[in-house]
Amino acid sequence: MDEVFTQAAYQALVQEIFRRFPSVQKDGFLSGAYKPGLEAMQAFDEALGHPSRAFRSIHVAGTNGKGSVASMLASACHAAGMRTGLFTSPHLLDFRERARVDGEMIPKEYVFSFLSQWMPWITEHKLSFFEITTGLAFKWFADSEVDVAVVEVGLGGRLDATNILMPDLAVVTTIGLDHMALLGDTLGQIAAEKAGIFKAGVPAVVGESNPETDPVFNDRAWMFCPLTYADKVRPSLWYRHGTVLRQMDLLAPVQEKNLRTVLAAIDILKQHAHYQALTSDDAVLQGIIHAARDMHLRGRWERLSSQPYVVADIGHNAHALQYNFARLKELVAQGQFSSIIIVYGIMADKDLDAILPLMPEDATYIFTAPDTPRALPAGDLLRRYLIWRRAAAIPGPERAFHAPTVREAVQMAVQLSQSLSRQLSRSASAENPAPPVIYIGGSTFVVAEALPLFA
Length: 455
Prior knowledge:
Helix content is about 40%, strand content about 15%. By secondary structure, it is an alpha/beta fold. The protein folds into two domains: about 5-295, UDP-N-acetylmuramoyl-L-alanine:D-glutamate ligase, CATH 3.40.1190; about 300-455, Alpha-Beta Complex (Protein-Tyrosine Phosphatase, Chain A), CATH 3.90.190.20. The strands form two sheets. Strands 4-3-2-5-1-6-7-8 form an eight-stranded mixed sheet, with helices on both faces. Strand 11 (about 340-345), helix 15 (about 350-355) and strand 12 form a beta-alpha-beta unit.
């Protein structure tokens, strides 16, 4: 007898998936949630009728920027008239965010039907949460008859569940030191894992050249696949990049690099008969400009409020945070903001020692911990920051506090911003003094808990 869909039945089934099957978001990479190897995913794909072979795809890997690049590519394809799937991770508010067709999340009814049908198989074969969601997304893309699916790698590339695809293009955005316990502790080792998505005869784009990683990519691509470094070519639409950057709704400081990667990728795709829709330059650029809106991408230097001014970004490693913290300091130096208030939380397995020297010295910090056992407790984070600051002999007051929850940390930041704004209004000679800026970040989990507070 088929299960009958109701909202309550759907919620119960989804909660069971989260409870029974380990996920990286809930349990961490070293808990069994990350299952390196393709055997289980290949078997699941076969049981599902090989949906991975039913649609064309673009495969996107990288340490940072892969979610933005995947969303821009998907939005460009969609705007050009192609029916487009998009698979990204992690999710922020609803796990259905991971699978979209033309910007719309996978329907609850489809999720319920799929999980009800395949739960016995999933249980017997002990799939991970990511393998389940990958199979779900691929089956939905096939059933939806998408023209193309843009698929973001979960972790690494070579052994990632998504690597059962035979794409039309492989993209690697950037390489940085992250997830070193799983991918290696040098840029070269990490690049080798990302380059694992390269396939024979399939063109590849690497967004950022680097003396340490270029030999790895070159060796992988030699007599294997055509390789392009985006920062070494001038994409055909690059002459319009300044206008596009000013209009884009993806506002993170690294989006200029991501845009160049996307435009280089589109130049290659346009050479393929299946992607002739991408020759419509204006449609492609409009898709890129409105990628966050049309693909519903959240948490990438996203403005959550204007009064007080609040931005949130999911950048969580030193490679990403160096750009974000530098941008905050630049905005203060330009006079757009008077000061910086940072709400910050981090997972206990992250390289905090590499991040601390990047933090703006004169900012006010409210350290916190999201509701996950993976988080570093807020008090421990404050203590490590203060120890580092004193050891580095940084002058000036130590404006650092901690709050046990993200909600309390955000409330504290908003109250502090309002207090500072009132002080500036009373004392400043300028008629409209620049306000403080509140930055929320350090972890995807921190941003996920902050978003509903500004709904």
